Amino acid sequence: MTTSSPAAKIQANLKDLFKADLAPGDAYIRFQLTSDMTALLSREQVQESLLVKAEKITPLPSMPESVIGIMSSRDRVFCVFDLAQLLTLPSRLIAPRQYQILVLQTTAEPQIYIGLAVNRLQGIVRLPMQEIKSSLDAFPSKIATFLCGVVQQEEALIPVLDFKRISEALTTVNHN
Q: Is the CB of residue 167 less than 8 Å from the CB of residue 106?
């Protein structure tokens, strides 16, 4: 009969844990964008995801409807946008008690953090690049400009959003 401590058992299993087989491809955050649309965003672009009570976000007066307000996380202050409204899609985020927020960081200097509120996070999926198609004809042109491609999963076409294009549009709006 062998008696091992919990620490010894964990140490014995560490090698297997770090050799876990990952599905091939890049990681994407999958989320509910509107009541009838699921979308993907590259995991590389997402710094963190948060579940935030509505009272933790400070509303900003005289801003477009897509601007929910400002908040802080990890000693960073940033603006939070309703992603669906930002993309001119119908939004279900009208006065919720809490928001699910993806925090993204721009790559340009100075680096800026932006929060994108979504309906519901659905997890992480891995996709090989060849599964992402560039045919954007299935989406209205107002949203197609923010996409880097689409993925066919089961019967649905799922848009793959490009945060760089979204942040460029925000920068353009802020300078006008």
A: yes
* pTM score of the predicted model: 0.78
User: Can you name the residues that pair with 116 across neighbouring β-strands?
Assistant: 81, 102
* Residue 48 in tokens: 């963190």
CB-CB contact of 84 with 39 (8 Å): no
Question: Class for domain 30-175, per CATH?
Answer: mainly beta
Continuous H helices in the chain: 6-18, 83-86, 141-144, 163-175
Helix (H) or strand (E) run with residue 157 in it: strand 156-161
Q: How far is CA 59 from the centre of its chain?
A: 21
CA nearest neighbour of 80 among 95, 90, 66, 61: 66
Residues 7-60 have pLDDT tens digits of 666 666 655 545 445 567 889 999 998 888 899 999 988 888 899 898 999 999
Tell me the C-alpha distance between 119 and 34, whole Å: 7
> Which phi and psi (to 5°) does residue 86 adopt?
-60, -35
